[in-house]
Amino acid sequence: MKHEVTERVADLRTQIEQHHYRYYVLDDPLIPDHAYDHLFQALLALEAQYPELVAADSPTQRVGAQPLAAFAQVVHTIPMLSLENVFDTSGFAAFDQRVRERLGVSEPVCYVAEPKLDGLAVSLRYEQGQLVQAATRGDGRRGEDVTLNVRTIPSVPLRLLGSGWPEQLEVRGEVFMPRAGFEQLNERQRTLGDKTFANPRNAAAGSLRQLDPGVAAQRPLDWLCYGFVTDTRLAETYFAVLQLLLSWGLPISPWLTQLSDATACQMYVEQMRARRDQLAYDIDGVVFKVDRLVDQQRLGFVARAPRWAIAHKFPAQEEITLVEAVSFQVGRTGALTPVAQLQPVTVAGVQVSHATLHNMDEIARKDVRVGDTVVVRRAGDVIPEVVRVLPQQRPADTVPVVLPVACPVCGAAVLRVPDEAVARCSGGLSCAAQRKQAIRHFASRKALDIRGLGNKLIDQLVAQDLVRDPADLFSLSLETLAGLERMGAKSAASLLVSLAQAKQTTLGRFLFALGIPGTGETMAQQLADQFGTLEAVQQLRLSDLIPLKLSQAGKLHQVWVAAALPPEQPVAELVPPAELSWCLPVHVRLLAEQFCTVGDLLAVPPAEWVNEPTCQVAGMGDNLAAKLVTFFQQARNQTVIMRLRQAGLVWPAPVRSKQAHPVSGCTFVLTGTLTQSRHVYRELLQAYGAKVASAVSAQTDYVVAGEVAGSKLMKARQLAVPVLDEAALLRLLDESAAS
Ligand code: 9MJ
To answer: Ligand 1: distance of its center to the CA of 118 in Å?
Structure first.
């Protein structure tokens, strides 16, 4: 019996470790979360029953140690190195030159590239495959023993998987906190009234240096491995060793790439720079390492850095400057956004003189005042934002920011919806700011793409009251246009041509162009795909979009019965009961669609309250559904839509053959440089009923790879997902269309 239990425990541990690896290291789970939880609970139960079977490397033993009084010191047998930095192509070229001179070669050297994580370097020692010690870098020679905290990081294996690992293995890597986890952690800290962290790096450092591993376990830490110290040579190249480490359960960067020369390295820098903001975590550059390990050995070290590696640093994304004033911008839906006017400063290579403060709640939370010194952050094309105030540098005469009572553009009252962070101008389309924004949006590239209708022109058209809503654009005459400032007869004529061209559109673009609050490009396209016609979308009822679950309806029923409401009271006037936190005004509206009065509502048994939902839109929350339905119910919007159709806006009828197409329902991932923009391929594939995903997983049916495809191609090969080039993709679509 005991023998059977021991075997069962061992079997559960192996299964759990495998699934853990698929989930945390490969990002590609095989089983749903609840199935994993089930295995975990089974192991916990057995270990509770047979405590003598509990082992330190059991997946149940990540947390549980008592807090420490202090960290022990660890002397690194081989010092932990840092990296030399370069900041531009010429810096890298000089490095490459030095490498080749030292190696005495004239041909190009192969490098391996990976993003440079902005976290804390750690060294992990495995003996006989068991994690025995984890230490911080410290000063490179001595660090702190953070084993108990590192054990709580889910992507750190407590014992190595597979076989072939050396008995003594030391691996090195970076512990970091993904941005989303950092935001959540700060949110939690704020709610608890605890100290928040300035950035993910500080949060990771603070978490790793927690004396209580129970606290560290609550922190969303992750890590990636990029180094190793062994007695024996595991493979010929750094790249091959890292693949081995991955097979033993140690996570490596999905962007790890072998590059054949310095030119390829520079292309990699540009690619990562462009991708920087899409990654889930902060990086501050890329790292290049000479791939061949014998070459690394020959190159050796200088002081505290290897001669075979270099960090190509990106420009900093955060700078410090002064808030000179705060003004308010009015957006398309009337939202007032506070904007800080800054003393100009260069951030990540671009001059910044304005930064968003998001809304009044954010201003209060960050306690930003005019006259403050602040940290501004600019990431890619995103609008720069004020991250935080430096309170020590606050002068005595700072001025708090107050929300204006009247719209700075049209003077209408500014209203704040309770429970919403935004304040809005109540002027609607009579507010020139809202009109301008609505028309800009309508004409924008992803909407109707009206070429030649720039912002200056829109400002004039609105200011002179020539255009009050998007439909007015289509009745502009050549004379009117030619009479405007900086418009000749020629540009006026060409704008009319653009307007005529823009009338041929797609339903997805049209829905997006309408500017339905909360409905972006993807949602608009999804609505078009799912419902096929404008009429179908216009006629949607809340109950078509949100199925109110019977259990929810039952709870509402109980609460309202208990409240003994008068039967003649209209359902639309009921207030969501405070004790049901999920219940929002939208749920009341949902019921009001079907029941007029409280009497009608309570007369029906709960099981019959709600029709089976006819449709649900993936990714559409209750509030968005409510905004969509409200939009189409408003008379003003109905009129604009009618006038646009009268002006001749048309789109192709829905393709009904979608279901029949063999790629319909397949998931594609596009990677590498394609000859046409990804946008074009995405629309094409979607038109055939296929989905386009951003990450490769076991659910991916095809990967379409262009030039310089990187980690996604690698992952596709790992998972044996079919890879197509562009020609093969077009053949697949054509052949199947013909058959
Ligand atoms: C980071 N921070 O991502 C190294 N690093 O290699 C990578 N750091 C490194 N490699 C040798 N990817 C010393 C430090």
So the answer is: 10
Q: Quick one: pLDDT at residue 660?
A: 62
Question: Does residue 546 fall inside a structural domain?
Answer: no
- In the set 2, 116, 366, 555, the catalytic residue is 116
Q: Residue 37 sits in a domain of what CATH number?
A: 1.10.287.610
Ligand 1 binding pocket mutation candidate from 84, 116, 223 (most atoms within 8 A of CB):
116
CATH code: domain of residue 432: 1.10.150.20
Q: How far is the CA of 342 from the centre of ligand 1 (A)?
A: 35
The residue contributing the CA closest to ligand 1 atom 12 is 116
Q: Please calculate the CA angle 573-576-579 and round it to the nearest 5 degrees.
A: 150
CATH number of residue 216's parent domain: 3.30.470.30
H or E stretch covering 691: strand 691-693
Q: What is the CATH number of the domain that holds 692?
A: 3.40.50.10190
Do both 447 and 406 map to the same domain? no
Q: Which atom belonging to ligand 1 lies closest to the Cα atom of 253?
A: 12
Neighbours of 14 (CB within 10 A): 12
Q: Does the annotation mark 116 as catalytic? A: yes
Same domain, 329 and 226: no
Return the best residue to mutate from 226, 228, 276, 304 for the ligand 1 pocket (most ligand atoms within 8 A of CB).
226
Residue 425 φ then ψ, to 5°: -75, 135
Q: In terms of Cα–Cα distance, which of 541, 619, 615, 554 is closest to 583?
A: 554
Conformation bin of residue 285: beta by default, left when phi > 0, alpha when psi is -120 to 50: left
Same domain, 299 and 349: no
Residues 474 and 376 placed together within one structural domain of the fold: no
Q: How far apart are CA 471 and CA 263, in angstroms?
A: 51
Q: Residues with Cβ within 6 A of ligand 1? A: 81, 83, 114, 116-117, 174, 226-227, 287, 309
Dist. CA 328–CA 335, nearest whole Å: 9
Are residues 691 and 711 located together in one domain of the fold?
yes
- Which atom number of ligand 1 is nearest to the Cα of residue 305? 13
114 CA closest ligand 1 atom index: 12
pTM of the entire predicted model: 0.62
Query: How confident is the model over 61-101, as pLDDT tens digits?
Result: 887 567 777 889 999 998 998 899 998 999 999 999 999 99
Residue 529 lies in a domain: no
pLDDT in tens, 218-236: 999 999 999 999 888 899 9
User: Are residues 382 and 309 part of one domain?
Assistant: no
Domain containing residue 124 = 85-313
For the chain, the domain total comes to 5
Q: Ligand 1 centre from 81 Cα, in Å?
A: 9
* Residue ID of nearest Cα to ligand 1 atom 10: 226
Sheet with 723-724, edge to edge strand ranges: 691-693, 667-671, 702-705, 723-724
Last residue of a domain, one of 424, 444, 477: 424
322: domain CATH number?
2.40.50.140
The DSSP string of 86-149 is E-SHHHHHHHHHHHHHHHT--SPPPEEEEEEE-SEEEEEEEETTEEEEEEE-TTSSEEEB-HHH
Q: Indicate if the pLDDT at residue 197 is higher than 60.
A: yes
Give the residue, out of 83, 84, 288, with the most ligand 1 atoms within 8 A of its beta carbon, to mutate for a pocket test: 83
* The residue type at 46: L
Q: Check pLDDT > 90 for residue 356.
A: yes
Ligand 1 center to residue 129 CA distance, Å? Answer: 23
Distance 227 CA to ligand 1 centre (A): 7
Q: Which of 487, 502, 517 is the last residue of a domain?
A: 502
* 424 alpha carbon – ligand 1 mean position (Å): 48
141 and 290 share one domain: yes
Q: 509 in a domain, yes or no? A: no
Shared domain check, 192 and 270? yes
- The residues, any chain, with a CB within 8 Å of residue 508's CB and separated by 6 or more, are 521, 524, 525, 527, 528, 529
Within-domain flag for 654 = no
Nearest CA to ligand 1 atom 8: 116
